[in-house]
Write the structure tokens for this entry.
Amino acid sequence: MRKQHPDRACGVTGCKQKYDAGGYCNAHYQRLRKYGDPRAGKPTLQELAERRAYVIGEIEWFKTFGVSGELIARELGYTKVESVRDLLHRWGRPDLAELFMDRQEENWFRQWLDGKHRVA
Ligand SMILES: [Zn+2]
């Protein structure tokens, strides 16, 4: 029987799954064995769920400032607004998808983002 390590966490930063073996949770340990890298291969369900929560949270936040979908997509690292809209539909958020495609925009926000990108 495998020993349980209730206090140990998975070695992958941000992963909150239960510790399993070899320094990782089960999903990351399997990938380590399969690919020699715990971060290789397809994202885990937990990673997908976290990405989804992150993207939705960012869009909701940006939209409270009236930022356009184009700008939000760029901030989130997507090249096409349509990909983000399709994702939102797939995630069961047609309301947000519609809001996302709105073209309204605050100029100060664009300037702020442009400044941020220049510095970075
Ligand atoms: Zn993990």
